[in-house]
Design a protein that fits this description.
Layout: H1 6-13, H2 17-25, H3 32-45, H4 51-58, E1 63-68, H5 74-89, E2 93-98, H6 103-113, E3 120-123, H7 129-138, E4 141-144, E5 152-157, H8 159-171, E6 176-181, H9 187-202, E7 206-211, H10 217-222, H11 224-230, E8 234-237, H12 240-252, E9 262-267, E10 279-282, H13 285-301, E11 309-313, E12 315-317
Parallel strand pairs: 1-2, 1-3, 3-4, 4-5, 5-11, 6-7, 6-8, 8-9, 9-10
Antiparallel strand pairs: 10-12
Pfam families: LacI, Peripla_BP_3
Organism: Ancylobacter aquaticus
GO molecular function: DNA-binding transcription factor activity; transcription cis-regulatory region binding
């Protein structure tokens, strides 16, 4: 059976060869119905574009790269799936780089992959701003959760969700709370810390901040001693993984959630599967990945318009890990002094 060609796809779909080419390389220039018709015809015929030929004729590789700090973190794995699905819909393959939370490795990945991709989606970058701008001057870059003027960006605004969580805790009688954050170089963690601090002050709550370091289950579990020492009755964690670690550390000490302590997470990826189910701020991770890919590919198709930015609002989802503040322990009772004997009874 002969290998299907672009000419055969065009004839079967009733369109020009240029339209077939655009359906794979620049689908945003066509109507969704035309793109669906062309791609459906190509799939039925078994047609696959020649990426080498396309790269030679268009100067495009048909690939983009997604650079993540930690692919094992549920937030970034969900973001990755959203980005890959959107890239596939638009005819692009996705390279993946895991920077292991290090700025140096981000720098290396951006440099080494540049020759093989048409642009980058850089999620929660740890790099300093000048280095990000240096790479963006060489290849198109869209950043997620880093607000850099002049660079395409998708910002997940979880501040309102954390504000709502503080209001919830205040209404439940909590007077001392903690924010457990990622390294302070993290834009999203800084944003969440500011929201908790401001909302706490507005509602008369005492707020302490504890740095968990690299967000992980172990980091959450290890910070429990500090939470208890600080005398707080609730913790808001930078993500669900850290929140789950906090719940595990409390359980190891015989404390119940939410009876003895309330916990709030963020991302809402694993929150419904914890025990108890975790109150969490839904960060719409997959949508953030898809929007970033759209920004990048739209910019490749038409680089002249002003740089765009998308803001996604996070919302609080209340579940079973938050409850009324525990009643304060009764003050220890002093020993009653012995009664003086009745003088009249003395012999």
């Amino acid at each position: 059976m002969p290998v299907p060609t672009i000419r055969l796809v065009a004839r079967e779909a009733g369109v020009s060869q240029a339209t077939v080419s655009r359906a794979f390389s620049q689908p945003e220039l066509l109507t969704p119905a035309t793109v669906e018709k062309v791609l459906g015809t190509a799939q039925r015929l078994g047609y696959v574009p020649n990426q080498v030929a396309r790269a030679l004729s268009t100067g495009r590789a048909g690939n983009i790269a997604l650079i993540l700090p930690d692919v094992a973190n549920p937030f970034f794995s969900a973001l990755m799936r959203g980005a890959q699905a959107q890239a596939y819909k638009r005819g692009y393959a996705t390279f993946l780089g895991d920077s292991d939370e290090t700025a140096h490795l981000e720098d290396v990945l951006l440099a080494k992959l540049a020759a093989q991709v048409d642009g980058f989606v850089l999620a929660s970058p740890r790099l300093d701003e000048p280095l990000i701008r240096k790479h963006a001057a060489r290849k198109p870059v869209v950043v997620i959760n880093r607000d850099l003027e002049g660079i395409g960006r998708v910002l997940v605004d979880t501040g309102p969700g954390f504000t709502a969580a503080v209001v919830l805790l205040a209404g439940l009688g909590h007077r001392a709370i903690a924010y457990v954050g990622a390294p302070r170089t993290s834009w999203s963690s800084q944003q969440r810390a500011r929201a908790v601090t401001a909302a706490g002050a507005a509602h008369g709550l005492s707020v302490v901040q504890i740095d968990a370091g690299r967000p992980s289950h172990e980091a959450g579990r290890d910070c429990v001693a500090g939470l208890l020492e600080a005398g707080v009755t609730a913790a808001l964690a930078v993500d669900d993984v850290v929140a789950q670690g906090i719940m595990a550390g409390l359980a190891e000490r015989g404390l119940s959630v939410p009876g003895d302590f309330s916990v709030v997470g963020c991302d809402d990826i694993i929150a419904a599967t914890t025990y108890p189910p975790l109150t969490s701020v839904n960060a719409h991770c997959a949508l953030a990945g898809a929007n970033a890919v759209d920004l990048l590919l739209n910019g490749l198709a038409n680089p002249t318009p002003p740089v765009e930015g998308h803001v996604i609002k996070g919302e609080l989802v209340i579940r079973g890990s938050t409850g009324p503040a525990p009643a304060p322990a009764p003050a220890p009772r002093g020993r009653k002094a012995p009664a003086e004997p009745d003088p009249s009874s003395r012999k």
